[in-house]
């Protein structure tokens, strides 16, 4: 004997529940993916900020000579190059460039400036 709930509409409740669970599962998956992407972007922004700070510090207070200087600071390997620009000027002008490479991500950053050339010791 059939009960009142065994009609043709009895299966719709199960389908509705499954569709609702599917929608909820997709929302959770997309939320987790968005959270992961946000963490990656935040890490990249923090790396760029640290690189900018280190570039500025090395340009302003790093070693000043015609010999290339290299070193490691935190997560970055760095190189400072100083070259004369040439030309006829009352003072010697040098192109000073700092290059950074993140050890973990291998991303490269660089900054350059023009300044008066360092005086080499006649030693």
Features:
123 residues; alpha+beta; Pantoate--beta-alanine Ligase, Chain: A,domain 2; 4-stranded antiparallel sheet; 1 helix; 4 strands
Listing every helix as H and every strand as E from the N terminus to the C terminus, the arrangement reads HEEEE
Shape category:
rod-shaped
How many separate structural domains?
A: 1
Which strand order does the major sheet show?
Answer: 1-2-3-4
Mean pLDDT: 87
Main β-sheet description: 4 strands, antiparallel
Which fold does the CATH topology refer to? Pantoate--beta-alanine Ligase, Chain: A,domain 2
CATH top level assignment: Alpha Beta
Residues in helices, as a percent range = 40-55%
Contiguous low-pLDDT stretches (5 residues minimum) are: none
Task: Compute the CA-based radius of gyration.
Answer: 31 Å
